[in-house]
Design goal:
Two copies of one chain form a homodimer. With about 425 residues, chain A is α/β, with parallel strands linked by helices. Chain A has 14 helices and 17 strands. In chain A, strands 1, 2, 3, 4, 5, 14, 15, 16 and 17 form a nine-stranded mixed sheet that branches. An eight-stranded parallel sheet of chain A has the order 6-7-8-9-10-11-12-13.
Chain lengths: ~425, ~425
């Protein structure tokens, strides 16, 4: 692994009024940031690969805290439909017919290409055949938490639901030693897993010191579905099962009431919000301001691109900042600066990565460079414009774990054209159904 | 002007289930589409310039129905602030200090660059020193309706508000003969113009058969401000002044009640919605479903990029479709297909351009080509993905009035680097204040 120095950069610094400083440099060695400073002090390290940012902005790579990368094959397969029609008539049948290890591998690679090209360097994924996803992320050079799905129905790779937790636990064991791609468990939801399954899945995650993801209170309808098992809210149900703790990540968390927010906050559990998915599926608007005020750490996720339909965190940040303002009729909440933190340092912390998401010596070198020399980024008074005006295609370079994985919008770690071809072929079969 | 033929294209056809057909061609001559067909029938015209779309999608250029292009200098100058602080402490002082003809010219050129690069071929603009904007759009090769601002305060270029309508009328006269850039009047709002000014401005527009734009019911606070003049709603106030008619365009129209919607519908007036601006400034959510149901023609606008902060209609379409779904908790409203029509044919109709916004023989050749060969657009089951997954940078070619104004993301009509430099210089002065 080569040493790298990034020169002549605007450097992301969200604590400053403008949110960045001019004329900076960053040096990288052995996968970590070594020094950060101003160009007059720059002393080129011996044999370092120099990247002249030419006034571009260096910032921490974005952290996508929720995805179902395998579902990239189903991007936009069925839009603008009622949730249950979408799920039961389109998504579930397509999954039953087309999800296999090869499909998950290629669809995840396609997702990795899209994510890298849009500035994401770390992803938390959750799907079936997760060995294949973990393999794809490894080959793509991404940092990932890859969670094997657990559900009480026959699922891809798990025809007998009785085996779902055992399958997940064997998966955890296989990937235990991996550093950049870490295994985790994804229990689909309180209404698709029995209490026994939820408790067993959480215990398996605890035994392996792994994160436990669960869709929680995504829709108002969930409460009714859960009513047969439990008289309280989905959050209080998880609490009663002793499942909420620092290693539990509650995804969506749209329909949390005040008591739920307190429960989540007291337990130390964390929340991932996927505003664009919640908007498109008309699920609702999560109480993010209240959660953050209660001290809950909140990350951002795109969700799978069957329901978004992209994996672009720049779009997600924009939607998140704007949606909450108009929902509360208050332009001062969900500030651009807060949303940037959610998509970087807060997301990394959520995933247990204490040395990711910030630009400082000794942090992991997960960095992206944006070309600001574009009409839509002129003038550039503040980094708030990253939320309100930047787009995925402005990212020109991506470095993960000290390795250049994308340069000049060219992915260097795998063959993107082959990946698109393979998924396009599968899409032909999907369309013929 | 050269003849053009676009070959090997996917062709936008929103009435088809997928919304496009494969393997099409379009021929263009003397500024208009001449023929549309399938490649086997293609017979290359003599001496035509051939653009091989290589499977890219040809669609009508997008129509941005509301912008203040001169304000591009103030992009992101002050974010996440209360509306009145934003206006009174930042935007009004910056306008008083920095708006002059040269600034409007260059900022509008910068806006034109951003719009062309993000697929917009027609814009309705509204600002001061609108001669300069009209000149910039003319040089950029865009189709435009450029409206001179009228307000009852001292304004850029109109130090004496008593002259505001006369200034606008002389402007209408100067640009009367122009075909691609048409003049119009923009009365700022019912609360910043007296009834006398509103009536006089509308009369001037009528005398010149010009469109009359007005910000209407953007915020809940407007009603209170207007309370001193009129006991009813802003819409009923305009109706009482005989201002609502087919040539009146009500911008924003967020706080319309049922009666207002009926008034607007009966009058034949049209509405422009700017969802991203309304979200960011926390103004509210316009009743677009109701307006459309009542038969009101609705176009999409970005608003000026002091309050958005970009001029990207792909982002605007995405926000529009998703916002209304989550607001109503109904994923079937504001369908992608409807939003695409709002951003093309409906917008063109709103601006009185009956031969713009559709792909058909004899229509004006305002066309854009998108490169679909990208990870985030794979698979591409339907044109709905243009709303939910495409981004501005996917636009590779833009043709306006039969002339190629952008190819391979290079603008051919003016010097974009010079334009960015000029605006960046002005931005340095803005920052020093």
């Amino acid at each position: 692994m080569e040493d790298i120095a990034i020169t002549n950069a605007r450097v992301y610094a969200p604590h400053l009024p403008q949110g960045f400083y001019e004329n900076g440099f960053i040096t990288i060695s052995a996968g970590r940031i070594r020094s950060v400073g101003l160009m007059p002090e720059f002393d080129a390290p011996d044999e370092a690969w120099i990247i002249d940012a030419e006034g571009g902005l260096v910032m921490p790579g974005l952290v996508n805290c929720h995805n179902h990368a395998g579902m990239t094959l189903f991007r936009g397969l069925a839009d603008d439909l009622p949730l249950m029609t979408w799920l039961e008539k389109h998504i579930f049948p397509a999954e039953a017919r087309f999800v296999n290890p090869e499909m998950v591998y290629w669809a995840t690679k396609l997702a990795a290409a899209e994510m890298i090209l849009s500035g994401t360097t770390t992803v938390a994924d959750a799907y079936f055949f997760e060995d294949e996803s973990a393999r794809a992320f490894t080959e793509a050079g991404m940092r990932a938490v890859a969670a094997q799905g657990v559900i009480d129905f026959p699922a891809p790779g798990v025809p007998d639901p009785k085996e779902n937790v055992a399958v997940a636990e064997r998966y955890l064991e296989r990937w235990q030693e991996n550093e950049r791609v870490r295994p985790a468990v994804f229990a689909h939801s309180p209404y698709t897993c029995s209490s026994k399954t939820l408790v067993a899945a959480k215990e398996a995650a605890r035994r392996h010191n792994a994160l436990f993801f669960i869709h929680l209170s995504e829709t108002a309808g969930e409460r009714d579905l859960l009513g047969e098992k439990w008289s309280g809210s989905p959050a209080s149900y998880l609490h009663s099962l002793n499942i909420l703790d620092e290693q539990t990540v509650c995804v969506h968390s749209v329909w949390l009431d005040e008591k739920d927010i307190d429960l989540v906050a007291e337990s130390g559990a964390q929340v991932v919000s996927c505003p664009e998915s919640n908007m498109k599926l008309a699920s609702g608007i999560a109480p993010l301001a209240e959660l953050r005020l209660a001290g809950v750490n909140v990350g951002l996720g795109t969700d799978g691109c069957a329901s978004n339909n992209d994996l672009d965190l720049f779009g997600e940040m924009d939607a998140c900042a704007k949606l909450h303002k108009v929902h509360r009729l208050d332009p001062t909440i969900m500030k651009a600066r807060d949303v940037l933190r959610m998509a970087t340092e807060d997301g990394a912390r959520l995933l247990g990565m204490k040395d990711v998401g910030l630009i400082a010596p000794d942090m992991r070198a997960d960095l992206i460079i944006l070309d600001l020399n574009k009409p839509h980024l002129t003038p550039f008074y503040s980094i708030d414009n990253l939320v309100y005006a930047a787009c995925s295609a402005d990212v020109v370079t991506s470095i993960i774990d000290g390795k250049i994985v994308m340069d000049d919008r060219e992915i260097l770690t795998f063959d993107v054209a082959e990946t698109m071809d393979r998924v396009a072929e599968m899409a032909c079969s999907v369309m013929k159904e």
